[in-house]
Amino acid sequence: MSKRPEKAPSQRQLRVGEEIRHALSDVLERGEVRDPGLGDRPVTVTEVRVSPDLRHATAFVMPLGGADGAAVAKVVGALSRAAPFLRHRVSERVRLRFAPELAFRADETFAEAERIDSLLTNPRVARDIKGDKSGRGS
Fold first, then answer.
1. Which residue ranges form the domains of the chain, and what is each CATH number?
2. In whole angstroms, how far apart are CA 94 and each of 66, 85, 136?
3. What is the predicted pLDDT for the residue at 138?
4. Pairing between β-strand 43-50 and β-strand 56-63 as defined by DSSP bridges
5. What is the DSSP letter of 136?
6. How far is CA 25 from CA 57, 60, 84, 104, 120, in A?
7. Contact 56, 101 (CB under 8 A)
8. Backbone angles phi, psi at 62, to 5 degrees
9. More confident residue, 30 or 67
10. Of the residues 30, 43, 79, 135, which has the fewest C-beta atoms closer than 10 A?
11. pTM for the predicted model, two decimal places
């Protein structure tokens, strides 16, 4: 059995996700969340994906300036513990029929971009890219 492809998010989902991202960023910027897992580390909310029924939102976060895996896990844990508080704050700023349940995940896009960049700068790959100017394989 094949899995059905995911539908692209609707304009409403994208718009609500962006509003939630702004609201979360504002709350975190003001330092309203007091959790030892966050410390004084600023957190970047890179994206918020909202379910089609707008009842669940997943926020992708990263400590500002990047960090190792343990620090990212601490930040995600702290935000997960503060999710009910953040949900309340978001509901004050974003007017929806239901306040969405918030989930937090580490944003892996920066690590993936770094991995791809390191692959492209690998001497063997760079040689292949420079050697094949015609667009055809060897």
1. 11-107 (3.30.300.20)
2. 28, 14, 52
3. 47
4. antiparallel
5. -
6. 14, 11, 16, 13, 33
7. yes
8. -155, 135
9. 30
10. 135
11. 0.76
